Amino acid sequence: MNSPHWTPHWTPHWSPHWTPGGLEPSMNSYLNPNLHQDVGMNTQELAVTVPKPVHVKKGMFSELHSKVSEAGIPVTATHFDLQREMLWMGNYTGHVQSFLGPTMAHYSSFQVHATDAIRHMQSLDTGVLFLSKCNLGCYTRGGLVMFDYRMEEGADMRSLLMTDNMLLMGGLQNYVVEVDLNTLQETQKFTVEAPGVTIMRQTNRFFFFGHPSGKVTLRDLRTFRTQKFDAFPGGLSDFDVHGNLLAVSGFSSRGPNERFLMVYDLRMMRAATPLWVHVDPCFVRFIPTYTSRLAIISQTGECQFCEPTGLANMADIFHVNTNGQFLTSFEVSSSKQALAFGDSGGCVCLWSDTRDVMFNVYSREPCVVDALPQLTWNHNLQHCSPIPTVQIMLSLPQWAPGMEPEIPQTIETVGFNSYVENPYACPCNQVWTPGHGYYNHVPESPTQSDEEPLLHTVPDKYRKVTIKYSKCGREDFDFKHYNRTLFAGLEPQIPNAYCNCMIQVLYFLEPVRCLVQNHSCHKEFCLACELGFLFHMLDLSQGDPCQASNFLRALRNIPEAKEMGLILSNCEETTGTVELGRLIQRWNHFILYQLFQETQEQEDPRAYRTPRSSSLGSSGDSVIRELFCSEVENRSLCLCGIETVHSSLMSLFNMHYPDSQGEMKEHDFAEILKKSICLQQRSHTWCENCDKYHPTVQTRNIRRLPDVLVINCEVNSSKEAEFWKVQAEYAFNKSMQKTDQDQRHVWIPATLKMSLSKVRDWRSAAGLRLSAAEEAEGASLYDLVVTVPHILDSGTGGNLVAHIKVGETYHQRKEGVSRQQWYLFNDFLIEPIEKSEAAQFDVSWKVPAILCYAKRNYHTKYNLRSKCQHNQSEVKSDLYRTQKQKKTDATFIPLTVSEMPRAGDLVGLDAEFVKLSEEEAVLHSDGTKSTITPSQMSVARITCVRGQGPTRGPFIDDYISTQEQVVDYLTKYSGIEPGDLDATVSSKHVTTLKSTYLKLTLPHRLRSSPVGHGLQNDFRVINLVVPKDQVIDTVHLFRLPYKRMISLKFLAWYFLGLNIQGETHDSTEDSCTALKLYRKYLELYQEGGNHYVTKLNWKVPDLDAR
Fold first, then answer.
1. Which among 594, 624, 618, 449 has a CA at the least distance from the CA of 530?
2. pLDDT digits over 179-196, tens only?
3. Where does the USP domain lie (predicted)?
4. Are residues 962 and 1021 in the same domain?
């Protein structure tokens, strides 16, 4: 494997003055600047060539040469050619280059794939194999195509392995494909453990498969037995094999690399003593020469060599000059004399321990193009510059057409200038009307089209919405223009906010909402808990948008989400290169599985009820299981006649479309859905009776239907898009003969009648009832409640929206009325729509991704009472008593039982923040600035102060630990210093965000009143919604109408005589000052005086100068 599966978002502390103990002072570039005299630099200050090799000490690895392929484009794969003295590199954009020998002279450069990155490379005798996401290409070393093999739709390949003439390919799917390179036919498909295989190795006895889950599977080539090693719970980064030793590096469950390697003895099939190292291991390779040496490489460039059975020595650490970039690939030559490093800036470095380096023990000479013959000059040759001869003049294009005779008659002359009206210009405030045939250019299947759909074909409400930031930020942005309902939208500018639509879908499923709001656990990153907090915000909000940043923060810290590709980088989000339809379907599968796992252990047995009993008391009962999971029976029939049967659960189903030859026929949606649920397919699986892989017929039968049927539409290519388009046309032709105009172009039914034996579709939900016989056989009516389409736009990558049928209980809570209504949810845009619009899909711009059918009246058997509706006396008060300060210098005193907040109590509140990313802005020529993406803030400190009682001072003063990279601590405004948020070195009371959030929300749920200065922004970043009648914000109390907001520093100086916020800010000081200001306001209000001052321009004067 050439690249890791997870890139950490932090930068370790690195001092440029640190001298590696493994290098002599004369070989250190910082102590000996002469080493840089022959190194060229490009505009990004990256080394591009070394004309003369530096001195290399025998037995010590050091840099020979470095090349920049394409600046700024990450190198995703490197490979030493096994037949020739060549080094290959592939980058993120699908481009490859090759270099000759230790001098790294350019040999070839060509494009392998238009968009996908190069994942893996393997050299053959006649060419080189290049693996991308779903494509395998074989090219000559000069760049000619030998063959191009495409995998099936949905494949996500990561690695390949050569075995004689057979090639194994694995990726993020539960199978490994074997392809015969002679016939280019798939011979076998091995079933492996989900979520797939990303690294493959081979020895004389074993196949080794590395899984993203942190496991390594061994398959014995002689007995076909398998052995599993659970190496790291947080995921696998790399492993390598030599002799009887297996070395594995990976991640802990908290995210960062563990500073040790797991070493396994393959003779005993058990773990040996772990090898502790001094770097964060990301790449691991054996470099056996005289001993079994290990090379451990970190992403920041530290390289350590050590023995797998000994102790690591600090003197064996080298450093690769990455110029601030991350290493993304690492490779060792077959001769073990050369190392190749590729980084995220597009640079490839070649290291060796000898000057006369050889990549292979025996290599062939590469084919070199013959030099062009030297052109000898004589006077009979033509001039190199073209002379305008008659033939050249005749070959030029036609000259510009002459001026029309009417134009000179309208010329007006003023002074020395003449003017004439342009007859071809468009009049002011008018636009040209599109002519005939203009709409014919709209592509029929834009999922695979190179042309962008015309923007005017997409209604405004479906387009991607953005927040326009002014000099006041987002305060003057009119969200009510996009949402005139009382339901809350979600802000889209947060990283990975593409899942906003599915968050709304889960919220409007009443049993899910109550389940996560009742869930409570001690895990730091629990998606069920975070969804419960977010849903409580959506309950309290009266039409104002909310932020899901805490939920997305927890999502980013779950290793399984990273391995499934659900965490997007900034580049992927801004460029719009992600296929959002596939992405949201993977996210849907992940979130259902994650909620099932997180809620199963601590779920209340009273979570749902049946008509015959008050509750289902079995400990195995689960709301998620009852809601989404179908019990299926899987039958596998081998050629030998042996049939195996096993049962499993499925939380959703993928649509499988018929293979149509020639003209596409009309199909019934219910029939296709039935074949997709009761699927029958052929595959190669292991047969215990035959003791080998055999073709088997696999059949899936349903034993229990869920309450909510979730369907992934799988419209991932032009073929599926064309299928939906044709079915919509058939539906339109049928509806022309009917009076129901709303159901035109609607192929999917509004209601399904389903039983374990048959599925029948209905076009209208009105008046449908089940007969007694149908109820006896277990039939049920399923109504369409959710559709999630992907809105196409090649300029921005499109966006995801949701059509949701909102039930009566939600309308009753928000509006006080009992009705059902379909709504469009497009981030913070919410608009009521007709039911037909939710089921219409014009695949030229609106592609279906997810459908949800819910059993009619399914919610009656669930307990829909959440803790937020419980008596407040049931709220636990030990949140404050269980916290302990491990430091002697305590900064707060927790609340006692008698001090628990009550309705109307005052609580001083202030929070400090750090910056996780800088804002992206555009500076215009007139000097104005437009913010494109705001800076991402994260809460770093929260302080709550008692507002009454004999005990004064804070009862919460928590510093929030963070595992994400902080780009600016904002020390001048926050008082946060580097190291304050690290629990291992901080002298502060550092805790998790979830723990502090629980303590912070309790007073507000008990109707206490928070007092602070500028609380609106604090609540938004903390992800807290407090009813406006509870909030006491001094920034609004001391503000004149239509005037600027006054700073806390000025108000404290003028009204209280306090000089605060000197060098830095302190949240304890600010919250106490806000409480004093509020009491001062009450005094002024009773006196009826007006003490506002404007002559000082709301600024504290310079007291020292006075």
1. 594
2. 988 888 888 888 887 678
3. 488-856
4. yes
Q: Which domain holds residue 72?
A: 25-352
Which pLDDT does position 883 carry in this prediction? 53
Q: Both 735 and 882 in a single domain?
A: no
Measured CA to CA, the distance from residue 136 to residue 143 in angstroms comes to 14
**Length of the chain, in residues:** 1106
Do 473 and 537 sit in the same domain of this protein? yes
How much is the pLDDT for 315?
57
**969-995 burial, b if ≥16 CB within 10 A, otherwise e?**
bbbeebbbeeebbeeeeeebbbbbbbb
Q: Are residues 892 and 813 in the same domain?
A: no
Check whether residue 883 and residue 823 sit in a common domain. Answer: no
Same domain, 63 and 200: yes
As a whole number of Å, the end-to-end CA separation of the chain is 69
Query: H or E segment at 839?
Result: helix 835-839
- SS3 of 230-253: ECCCCEEEEEEEECCEEEEEEECC
3-class SS at 623?
Answer: helix
pLDDT of 382: 56
pTM score > 0.85 for this model? no
**Residue whose C-alpha is closest to residue 582's, from 55, 153, 44, 922:** 153
Say yes or no: 850 and 919 in one domain: no
Kindly state the greatest CA–CA separation across the chain. Answer: 109
Alpha helices, H only, 660-803: 669-677, 718-735, 772-776
Q: Give the span between the Cα atoms of 220 and 204, in whole angstroms.
A: 10
In a domain? residue 670: no
pLDDT for 1070: 92
**pLDDT at position 324:** 81
Tokens coding 279: 């770097």
Q: What is the CATH number of the domain that holds 875?
A: 3.30.420
Which of 813, 848, 867 is a domain's end point? 867
pLDDT for the residue numbered 923: 77
CATH label of the domain that carries residue 340: 2.130.10.10
Q: Is residue 1043 part of a domain?
A: no
Considering the domain boundaries, does residue 949 fall inside one?
yes
Of 1007, 1032, 1057, the domain-final residue? 1032
Q: Are 453 and 445 in contact (CB under 8 A)?
A: no
Question: 900-905: long-range contacts (C-beta < 8 A, 24 or more apart)?
Answer: 900/1006, 901/1002, 901/1003, 901/1006, 901/1008, 902/1006, 902/1007, 902/1008, 903/1006, 903/1007, 903/1008, 904/1007, 904/1008, 904/1009, 905/947, 905/948, 905/1003, 905/1008, 905/1009
Residue 926, number of CB atoms within 10 A of its CB: 5
For residue 27, the number of C-alpha atoms closer than 13 Å in the C-beta half-sphere is 20
Shared-domain flag, residues 906 and 790? no
> Which regions of the chain are under pLDDT 50?
1-55, 435-456, 604-620, 739, 741, 763-766, 869-875, 877, 882, 888, 1090-1095, 1104-1106
Residue 813's domain is classified under what CATH number?
3.90.70.10
- pLDDT, one tens digit per residue, over 17-39 is 333 333 333 334 434 444 444 44
Spatial CB neighbours of 156, under 8 Å, sequence gap ≥ 6: 133, 134, 171, 172, 173, 196, 565
Tokens of 47: 């080394």
At a CB cut-off of 8 Å and minimum separation 6, what does 478 contact?
none
Residue 295 domain flag: yes
One-letter identity of residue 1001: T
DSSP string, 39-58: -EE-TT--EEE-SSPPP--T
**Torsions phi, psi for 69 (to 5 deg):** -75, -65
CB proximity list for 357: less than 8 A, separation 6 or greater: 64, 102, 335, 337, 338
Residue with tokens 């292991």: 686
Tokens of 716: 């991932």
Tally the domains of the chain: 3
